[in-house]
Automatic annotation (TrEMBL):
Pfam families: Ribosomal_L30 (PF00327), Ribosomal_L30_N (PF08079). Residues 126-149 are annotated as: Disordered. This is 60S ribosomal protein L7-like 1. It comes from Triplophysa tibetana. InterPro entries: Ribo_uL30_ferredoxin-like_sf (IPR036919), Ribosomal_uL30 (IPR039699), Ribosomal_uL30_CS (IPR018038), Ribosomal_uL30_euk (IPR005998), Ribosomal_uL30_euk_arc (IPR035808), Ribosomal_uL30_ferredoxin-like (IPR016082), Ribosomal_uL30_N_euk (IPR012988). GO terms for biological process: maturation of LSU-rRNA from tricistronic rRNA transcript (SSU-rRNA, 5.8S rRNA, LSU-rRNA).
Amino acid sequence: MKLANSACPMKERSTTVALTPLSARAAAACPAISQDTGLLLAESYANHLARRRISNACRWGKGTDHRELGTERGIKLVPENLLKKRKAYQAIKANQAKLALQQKRKVQKGIPLKFKRLEEFLKDSKKRQRDETRLTRLQRRPPPAMPPAKQQLAFAVRIKEIKGISPKVREVIQMLRLRKIFSGTFVKVTKTSIKMLKTVEPYVAWGFPNLKSVRELILKRGQGKINKKKVPLTDNTLIEKHLGEHGIICLEDLIHELYCAGKNFRVVNNFLWPFNLSVPRHAARDQVGLMKDVGNPGPRAEEINTVIRKLN
């Protein structure tokens, strides 16, 4: 379409321009509009449409190419070396935070300082002196009487703490393998074993178990010592593999050898791990309740079966 401006003193130009609706309406309203003004209106309207398209695309999350829309707006670029420095700095800060957290956890897991009061030293000293006096008197007395011949097996369970005791008593407790409280072992009745039980009498309850107690202990808490590891006795093949050369091929043979204190008693007893019995209900609350449940240490004869029932 040709536009000629006769009213304006500007030099006449003959140019073909594709007018937009806005420029067409403006030309219709003002017949004397110039070609330059029409071009400016067309360019302004095109920019307006481009901005609207960009705004709508951003609003609805659609990607747009500013070059396709005819605009010179672009994303501000960051130099590559600056991005590398920023990434390296973030990695250094993350590593420092990780090391600081590890150091904090290491400090928290450290062994806390234990302060021992003077009363504890006095208590341990009195306990040690009392043990020494008791052992001296025990040596002066005649040897204890042997139990009846039918009582060939004893069971000992430690029910007292051994903190601060005499080294001699501690050594006997380790020989009996009663290193933990509420742990128990079988002992063959001999003069030497009775003397050992008398030595640790204030800390150990012992007596003569019946066949039912022996069977319950083996079936419920029996564990074998294999390669210095605890292995539950749940398979006769396991027993035959390690005790078959002594004629013990099943669980019943093992129970019979223990209860009768046969010639292979020591082998079988060393094969078994010490029994870790359960802690009584009152053990963590008060000493009175513990004494009611378990009783006092020392020889208990047949009453050891009641103790086994409560702790097993």
